[in-house]
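Long-time lurker. I teach an intro course on protein structure, and each term I like to show students one example going from raw sequence to a predicted 3D structure in token notation. This year I'd like something fresh instead of my usual example. Would anyone be willing to generate the tokens for the chain below so I can use it in lecture? Attribution to the forum is fine with me.
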Amino acid sequence: MPLWLALCYLAPAAADTGKANTPPSPTVEVPGAAQDRDEKSYRSMLAGVDIFERNRNLAPGAELRFKLLPRQAGVAMEGLALELSGANTKIALPLASDQTFSLPRNADAANDNATVRSNRKDKSLTWRADIRSPNVPPNAKRLGDLLLECKVAMAGDLVAYIHHPINIMITKMDDPCRSMPINMFNFADRALFSVTLVDGNRRSAMPATMLHGPEYPVMAGQQDWTFLRERVYMVKFKALYEKGWSDDTLLQFDYMDDDKATE
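-- Reply from a regular --
Happy to contribute to a lecture. Here you go:
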């Protein structure tokens, strides 16, 4: 399999300009049994925390939190709860109103092969790192913060992708976010109309093909962004940095419900 195809599997390239018009089929959420919970390996997530600590220069003054979003229709975020769970571990993890949480270090839980477990069924949730440098406007994200989120997601096994051996190899590479031409799917707070890159006096509108994902995702069931596609924007870090955009570049969002977008 050629390498470019593997990269498309990891995060399909946005070559299609059309958008899917058919809404996702509604599902009925049933709370999962203990063996059928949406969960992540605690050790893997701690590896993401380690990456954050080693790369703080990308997001000076920021803290690392993790964020949960619905992965499919019918998943209620009200009443969502998290715990650090293992054979000898049960520690509640406080969840903020924006569905973010911090991850404490606990050697006993790591030795217990604990998981960060929700009270939702498997594949109900999308897991992301959430990093925000101080003084960034609420309608924007900083490029350095996004790059560090990608690094944490890769190390912490937070990225849902097609588990072809080449894709697995890419996620284990040193700094695939910066060194490989992948697309990283990110979520804005609301449905997006446009995104503009701003770095000092330099401005550039992000191509429309980088918004909302490709019309026909490859093996969509193994990806986690399609339900919230109206909020999705993709970032090609390697290309942006090669074109001279700095860590302090802001991605400014115009939302579909903004007055400017309506006009």
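Some talking points for your students: The chain has eight helices and 13 strands. The CA atoms of residues 240 and 246 lie 8 Å apart.
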